[in-house]
Write a structure and sequence with these properties.
The structure is a single chain. The chain contains 8 helices and 8 strands. About 35% of the residues lie in helices and about 20% in strands. Strand 7, helix 6 and strand 8 form a beta-alpha-beta unit. The two termini are about 25 Å apart. The mean pLDDT is about 95. The chain has about 230 residues and is an alpha/beta fold. Strands 1-2-4-3-5-6-7-8 form an 8-stranded mixed β-sheet, with helices on both faces.
Length: about 230
């Protein structure tokens, strides 16, 4: 059973879920754009059997604050502040899509803070052409202004993000969703080539791997984290 908690970092109240035995190896889960910590429920509970798992609502998502400023770099700084606030010197970090981008920015900024890194269908920081996002109907559990700000940076990333991948010291598992993912296979090849200790696997379930095949995803991640 997960506990719902909050912590204030960089003036932003961040909501998170914590599960697992105190003192177990810490793992932090970072969700995709427009998702929230609860998106990880089945993965979180499986990993929490022998680890202490934290699933974070990034700023502008879920129950976290919706401040005026958004960027992957600010989310990176929030995660680092979160680790500081909870006294977590080093963690294993698992990120999906946007959460994977934030995760590799964290691992590049402070390599010693990340023991092992898992990137689930996360795009390489390369310029891309994509359609303008269209706001869904109805009430949203994320800030639409955040989507517009973050998508603009993901489409035209700072070139320093790409070279920063080479500073990552954590063993890294890059998971590609296969041909039904909307992301190009070359994106994952680029990440795996740039990170010094990375290996690439394909779980052919599209972009939402951990939702489509939670048991297979969790088995692959658990084996990697335990290696």
């Amino acid at each position: 059973m997960a506990e719902d908690l909050t912590v204030t970092v960089n003036g932003v109240r961040l909501a998170y879920q914590a599960a697992g035995a105190e003192g177990g190896p810490p793992v932090v889960l970072l969700h995709a754009l427009g998702e929230r910590a609860a998106d990880w429920e089945r993965v979180r509970d499986a990993l929490a059997r022998d680890r202490h798992v934290y699933a974070l609502d990034l700023r502008g998502h879920g129950l976290s604050d919706r401040p005026a400023q958004y960027s992957p770099e600010l989310m990176r700084d929030d995660v680092l502040g979160f680790l500081d606030a909870l006294g977590l010197d080093s963690v294993d970090l698992v990120g999906h899509s946007l959460g994977g981008v934030v995760a590799y920015l964290v691992a590049a900024e402070q390599p010693r803070r990340v023991g092992r890194l898992v990137l689930e269908d996360a795009p390489a920081p390369l310029p891309r052409i994509s359609a303008a996002p269209v706001r869904p109907e109805g009430e949203l559990d994320f800030d639409w202004a955040m989507v517009l700000a973050v998508r603009a940076e993901l489409d035209r990333p700072d070139p320093a993000w790409l070279t920063g991948l080479e500073r990552i010291s954590a063993p890294t598992l890059v998971i590609y969703g296969g041909p039904t993912s909307h992301l190009a296979a070359a994106s994952f090849d680029e990440i795996a080539a740039r990170i010094p200790d990375a290996r690439l696997i394909t779980l052919p379930y599209g972009h939402l791997i951990h939702a489509a095949a939670p048991e297979e995803f969790t088995a692959a991640v658990s084996a990697f984290l335990a290696a």
